[in-house]
Amino acid sequence: MDLNERFDWQGRQIAWGRAGSGPAVVFCHGTPWSSVVWQPFAEMLSHDHTVYLWDMPGYGLSSKRADHPVDFGVQAEAFAALLAHWGLDRPHVIAHDFGGAVSLRARLNLGAGYASLLLVDVVAIPPSGSPFFAFVQDHPDVLERLPAYIHEAIVRAYIRGASHRGLRDADLDALVRPWLGEEGQPAFYRQIAAYDESFLEENERRLGRLDLPVRIVWGADDAWIPVKTAQRLRGLLPGANLSLVAEAGHLIQYDAPAAVMDEIRTWLA
């Protein structure tokens, strides 16, 4: 499933793709990922659903201009505009990592309509971030100028640490590739430097207003965002339930793909 379409929005080009027929399902990726993490699931689901993949501005195949902000607020606005562009009124939304905060903000602040929301190891409420995030925020300009081979080593080590079981070489290459080169390297540090926890604090204050079916799926061995955050998130979401997937880390799509597909199928059914 290729992202061969482009949506022009506020000077940005958002890469997206659509496949299949049936009820609409939209996948949202997080950081530092792209729609690649959801591609196999979207392809399987396209047999009986209309599936949509997109890369957020600043990520994947979408434009990465230095003068374009990439914070939670901007991404939520981009998502709401994209849903309108697609003419979708109430799709099912499946979000991972950063995509959780984006989809929640688009719903709570911008009135985007969803039929349901499946949150998978999401960044949604504080605290979040990491010591690496703090370091990048203190030194973004320095890191942008690192020799390419050192930058690539950093990105590979960082992404590799999101998996509990370990990534295959081909999968790691696909996740690292968008962050290499003259455009990708500074974009990698920009999206971390733009991290602003105040958006998550606002999410937390508004979660009680969410009025749609929500399910939370979490890797039991997520070393990036611990299970206790998932449990607290469940307590803040009216009627939400939580499913823990054994032997899976933050990149649950790679650690336990069969379990994730089963969770998606069961939820949509």
What does the model show?
- InterPro entries: AB_hydrolase_1, AB_hydrolase_fold.
- The protein has a single domain (5-126, 197-268), classed as 3-Layer(aba) Sandwich (Rossmann fold), CATH 3.40.50.1820.
- It has an eight-stranded mixed β-sheet with strand order 1-2-4-3-5-6-7-8, sandwiched between helices.
- The radius of gyration is 17 Å and the shape is globular.
- The protein is built from twelve helices and eight strands.
- Helix 2 packs across helix 3 (98-108), helix 3 (98-108) crosses helix 9 (198-206) and helix 6 packs across helix 7.
- The chain is of the alpha/beta class and 269 residues long.
| Assembly type | single chain
Q: Which fold name corresponds to the CATH topology?
A: Rossmann fold
Helical/strand content category: alpha/beta
Task: List low-pLDDT spans.
Answer: none
Helix proportion: 40-55%
CATH-defined superfamily: Alpha/Beta hydrolase fold, catalytic domain
CATH class: Alpha Beta
Order of helices and strands: EEEHEHEHEHHHHHHEHEHH
